[in-house]
């Protein structure tokens, strides 16, 4: 399991790529469990029914549940004669952190300290080196050089905990630092992170979900408690939840003018405000009826 609600989501979903169908279904299952399966677990029947509202057929839904169980993301059990799936207790802290990072993002200020990560792993253990790089990338670190990584200070705790869970924390040294350079820090940030790719992801999110916001704004809260609102909210959360990790909250002063991430953050915040509670109400009523 990777950061937050992320299940190794390193690539955006491409509906034209048949190899991503299973990945997409697992992402949707993870969203549903994260949003509606804590602390009360969901039965298999309820999960399958909810996935059906997202266009996932029952065989694909059950396959995704089995794969997430094999990956130790979910744990199966019985309750009241019904089969249930719950989040692996070892991941509860990770998901709580994900809740905060996804739903209450924080942007660093230019004057805030940065965190530096450095490591040196022998070639004979290059698999460990790969794992460390993967974790730092998932956590939103930028690359200064092959063995020196950088991120806004608040990213440190989550990165340290994930490295510790994987038994890699003893291989990585962290330092708190401030920039003393007289040059343009924004220019350096542009070399440490792939801002073009990140901007593209933000614009794609805006293009997909701006029409939803305009459509739901005039709808009353009572009318929003429906299957369509549930499906579109889960889609929005699933599309969004990777972005606060790829972009670790870089200071606005260090980003290009008219940075699309700021508008996308506001868009997701508005969608969350409009649809989260009605979608949860609809889900509770549906689960009770099964």
Automatic annotation (TrEMBL):
Annotated organism of origin: Micromonospora inyonensis
Protein name per Swiss-Prot or TrEMBL: Transcriptional regulator, PaaX family
Residues covered by the Transcriptional repressor PaaX-like N-terminal domain: 27-87
Region (Disordered): 1-25
Biased composition (Basic and acidic residues): 1-16
Single biological process term from Gene Ontology: DNA-templated transcription
Biological classification of the source: Bacteria, Bacillati, Actinomycetota, Actinomycetes, Micromonosporales
Domain called Transcriptional repressor PaaX-like C-terminal: residue spans: 193-284
Domain Transcriptional repressor PaaX-like central Cas2-like intervals: 111-188
Gene3D superfamilies assigned to the protein according to its UniProt record, in alphabetical order: 1.20.58.1460, 3.30.70.2650, Winged helix-like DNA-binding domain superfamily/Winged helix DNA-binding domain
Origin superkingdom: Bacteria
One Pfam match: PaaX_M
InterPro entries per record: PaaX-like_central (IPR048846), PaaX-like_N (IPR012906), PaaX_C (IPR013225), PaaX_trns_reg (IPR011965), WH-like_DNA-bd_sf (IPR036388)
């Amino acid at each position: 399991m990777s950061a937050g609600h992320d299940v190794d989501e390193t690539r955006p979903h491409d509906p034209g790529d048949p190899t991503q169908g299973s990945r997409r279904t697992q992402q949707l299952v993870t969203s549903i469990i994260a949003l509606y399966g804590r602390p009360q677990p969901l039965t298999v029947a309820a999960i399958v029914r909810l996935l059906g509202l997202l266009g996932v057929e029952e065989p694909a839904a059950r396959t995704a549940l089995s794969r997430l169980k094999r990956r130790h993301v979910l744990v199966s059990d019985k309750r009241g004669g019904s089969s249930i799936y719950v989040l692996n207790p070892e991941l509860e802290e990770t998901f709580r952190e994900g809740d905060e990072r996804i739903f209450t993002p924080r942007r660093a200020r230019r004057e805030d300290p940065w965190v530096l990560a450095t490591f040196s792993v022998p070639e004979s253990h290059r698999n460990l080196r790969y794992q460390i790089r993967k974790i730092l990338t998932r956590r939103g670190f930028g690359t200064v050089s092959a063995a020196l990584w950088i991120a806004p200070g608040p990213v440190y705790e989550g990165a340290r905990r994930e490295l510790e869970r994987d038994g890699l924390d003893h291989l990585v040294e962290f330092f708190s630092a401030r920039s003393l350079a007289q040059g343009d820090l924004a220019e350096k940030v542009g070399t440490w992170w792939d801002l073009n790719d990140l901007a593209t992801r933000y614009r794609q999110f805006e293009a997909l979900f701006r029409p939803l916001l305009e459509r739901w704004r005039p709808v009353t809260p009572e009318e929003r408690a429906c299957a369509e609102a549930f499906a579109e909210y889960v889609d929005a959360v699933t599309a969004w939840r990777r972005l606060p990790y790829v972009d670790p909250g870089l200071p606005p002063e260090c980003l290009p003018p008219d940075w699309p991430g700021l508008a996308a953050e506001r868009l997701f915040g508005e969608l969350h405000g409009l649809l989260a509670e009605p979608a949860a109400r609809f889900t509770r009523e549906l689960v009770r009826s099964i």
